[in-house]
Amino acid sequence: MSNKVRVAIIGVGNCASSLIQGVEFYRNAQPDEFVPGLMHVNLGGYHISDIEFSAAFDIDKEKVGYDLGEAIWRGQNNTVKFAEVGKLGVPVHRGMTHDGLGKYLSEVIQKAPGPTADIVKILKDTRTDVVVNYLPVGSEMATKWYAEQILEAGCAMVNCMPVFIGREQYWRERFEERGLPIIGDDIKSQVGSTIIHRVLTRLFQERGVKLEHTYQLNFGGNTDFLNMLERERLVSKKISKTNSVLSQMQHEVAAEDVHIGPSDYVPWLKDRKWAHIRMEGRSFGDVPLLVDMKLEVHDSPNSAGIVIDAVRCCKLGLDRGLGGALEGPSSYFMKSPPFQVSDERAHELTALFIDGRVGAKCISDPEAPIKGEPRTPALTSDSAVELDGVAVNSEA
Ligand SMILES: NC(=O)c1ccc[n+]([C@@H]2O[C@H](COP(=O)([O-])OP(=O)(O)OC[C@H]3O[C@@H](n4cnc5c(N)ncnc54)[C@H](O)[C@@H]3O)[C@@H](O)[C@H]2O)c1
Q: Which of 134, 157, 223, 271 is the pocket-test mutation for ligand 1 (most atoms within 8 Å of CB)?
């Protein structure tokens, strides 16, 4: 069992850049201090500096063949630079394109020449523990193809984008059979529009305010938003964002009263994202109450701190021989986990998971033994939320 977390990246875009910069930025963070920006300096015995990048895959000719430490500044990447990153000694290999490049991305990205690299062999040769999927929204076939390579190579997976893998029973079972952990799907940023909207929705619910109409309009100037101009690629992203918010509500709301999704591309915003959230409800005495707010964030760094924790949770899963979805961490780190719980509960379950007090299935089977021991503390899971009698995570 290695004391390093060896991480491979699929898609060397803005999110990969922020993750790699973050590992450099926090290399010397003190474990016994509160470090602004981080949830955990030390996570289950792994410091941030224990994360090593082992391999990378892209299809952009501006990135393939370059060292990963150089590739993060190339092509269309336009996120903020907050750390110096030298050469990492990790080449970016040619991945498999499939449906990775949609209508708009193919106007600005040229495919690298040459054949697809042997992904399985590279993952094995580099002793990769965890593979992080950062493919563009709508890369349905490509994501499934890479998931097969990851299974074959015997690695854990963190699925940061909204093609449903960790959420789907079929894929969860595939990972379980191989004894490999997965955390998915669609990363929930540190303080992003999803978690704010979820927390406010739950606040309305708990304080007895009936939510009648709500929207969340998001726009930014990175390639993620450019790609999402293609509405056909957006279906799973809209499902992911909408379900994530609606799962926090127990009363019915008509579909036409909820609009949540990416809305436009404004190039000069670069990697900044603006989100407008409006919530109209009825409070005591049937009196109207409304919240209208705006969030401005740098999009990619906002998710990188979550991934820094997710890869370390996956490594803990590997160390403990756990296979399948890590349900607690998935519910805390992801918009579309296998089971939705409140963010407070998800936080608690993640802490219990890190301490080794719950296993992979802490929501679907809270009484499951851990490492062969019967569980003592009974968990009062608020479990999967149902809307209209239909579990919001019903298999698609
Ligand atoms: N806060 C956030 O930034 C955030 C939050 C949630 C989810 N996500 C999701 O994470 C994903 C990555 O976001 P990003 O901002 O880094 O996107 P990006 O557009 O900057 O990067 C995507 C990268 O994937 C590469 N690529 C395309 N097809 C490929 C293929 N078949 N094989 C290998 N590489 C391929 C592109 O060349 C590019 O380098 C997106 O799906 C996004 O929606 C991001």
A: 134
The one-letter amino acid code at 265 reads Y
Q: What is the pLDDT of residue 37?
A: 86
Ligand 1 pocket test target in 76, 79, 135, 145 with most atoms within 8 Å of CB: 135
The CATH homologous superfamily for domain 5-189+301-354 is NAD(P)-binding Rossmann-like Domain (3.40.50.720)
Q: Is 72 helix (H, G, I), strand (E, B) or coil?
A: coil
pLDDT digits (tens, 9 = 90+) for 91-101: 999 999 999 99
Residue of 204, 160, 190 whose CA lies nearest to 336: 160
Q: What does pTM read for this prediction?
A: 0.93
Which ranges of 88-130 does DSSP label H, i.e. alpha helix? 105-108, 119-125
Under CATH, which number does the domain 193-298 receive? 3.30.360.10
pLDDT recorded at residue 263: 86
